[in-house]
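Hi, here's the filled form for the chain we discussed.

Project: internal
Contact: R.S.
Residues: 169
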Amino acid sequence: MFPIKIKQKAEKVFKLCLKKKIKLAFAESCTGGLLSSLITSFPNSSKIFSCGLVAYSNLSKEKMLGVSKKSLKKFGSVSREIAIAMAESAASEGNADIGIGITGIAGPGGATKNKKVGDVYIAISDIKNNSGLSYDLDLKGSREQIRLSSVESALDLLIKYILNHKKKC
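And the returned structure, exactly as it came back:
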């Protein structure tokens, strides 16, 4: 289902989280739950994974994640600010150490005057340590390629974040 390179990165995230006793929660939009599916493909994933929520519409981002209507209107659902809000909500509502938020346009349609197909925003939120990180991506390829590249980028972000934070979250 997933390319071996992505599966290997997911395994690295899984092992790092087990070692550091980190619990993850995800809020996904353009990836449609792919990241959650990948992490839960490992046996004992409940030791590191709290929950995953697919919030595809603006209404679901508002109602299920608590993203403000004002922020959605001001920044657009595909933006760094919304990815950060999604990550913070995932961590908070999922009672997790780290939350990931992913939003973007996977295509082939959906582009706007200000956002194009392949614009993806990924954010990480570590509420307990009051820190985070984000990626703004300009991905190319088919819908499937953009979605898989988004998942791979989220894994890269997690690995980078966890390795740079020596103490337990």
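Let me know if anything looks off before we file it.
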